[in-house]
Amino acid sequence: MFTRVVDRLIGMVDCCPWQGHAYGMRDSHKSVVKVRPPYLYTPAERQRRDSTRWTLVQGILAPVQFIVFLTSLALVFHYLATGHGLYITTISILVKTATLYTIMITGSIWEHKVFGKYLFARAFFWEDVFSILVIALHTAYVVVLVSGSASVRTQMLIALAAYASYVINASQFVMKLRAARLEQRGGQIAGQIG
Fold first, then answer.
1. Which residues are CB-neighbours of 25 under 8 A, at least 6 positions away?
2. Which residues, 6+ apart, have CB-to-CB distance to 105 below 8 Å?
3. How confident is the model at residue 40 (pLDDT cuts 50, 70, 90)?
């Protein structure tokens, strides 16, 4: 049931016109070459993904983190525009950072359960690489906050840079979920035909 809900949510924002962009590439002789992209999950990995409770944990934490992000982003912009609400804005950034650490730790556990590696599994290598940047920027905010080594405005700008990197990283994961959804749909269609 949970995966159906996630599929429906992704389907609502899935408007990419290039669903088969890896197919039909032309070689130097102008003939069409069918290039089959590698599977995101092997059948065994898909079974492990569907059976581990960490999939549900990730599915709950991702939207919670996004809501925390939107709330904190609004507070940061409000503070930068008005100069008011520093305390609540700071708390919101720290809560966002804590949710990021939580989803990164539980995501590493999920990755280990599914792929046998805590980080940099083949299917999520680039997402994990970019996640390191996201964590580094969130951590930089905490360091300058605790050390007092930067002005409040600079702290807020670091938080905005961290949030921009988070949006890019979240987009990577949404695209990967979309790819998994299309892969699963393609496997179901092939099963019906075969």
1. 32, 33, 35
2. none
3. confident
Map tokens 């944990």 to a residue. Answer: 57
Q: Give strand pairing partners of 32.
A: 26
Long-range contacts of residues 12-16, Cβ cutoff 8 Å, at least 24 apart? 13/174, 14/178, 14/181, 16/178
- Tell me the longest C-alpha to C-alpha distance in the chain: 64
- Report how far residue 52's alpha carbon sits from residue 163's, in angstroms, rounded to the nearest whole number: 29
CA–CA separation, 111 and 49 (whole Å): 9
Tens digits of residue pLDDT in 14-36: 444 334 443 344 445 555 544 44
Residues in Cβ contact with 165 at an 8 Å cutoff, skipping those fewer than 6 apart: 130, 133, 134, 137
How large is the average pLDDT for residues 72-89?
Answer: 97
Go through the chain and tell me how many residues it has. Answer: 194
pTM: 0.73
> Domain boundaries in the chain?
2-16+40-193
Distance CA 131, CA 125 (A): 10
Q: How far is the C-alpha of 167 from the C-alpha of 138, rounded, in Å?
A: 13
Average of per-residue pLDDT across 163-178: 90
Q: What gap in Å lies between CA 64 and CA 98, rounded to an integer?
A: 12
Strand ranges (E), the chain: 25-26, 32-33
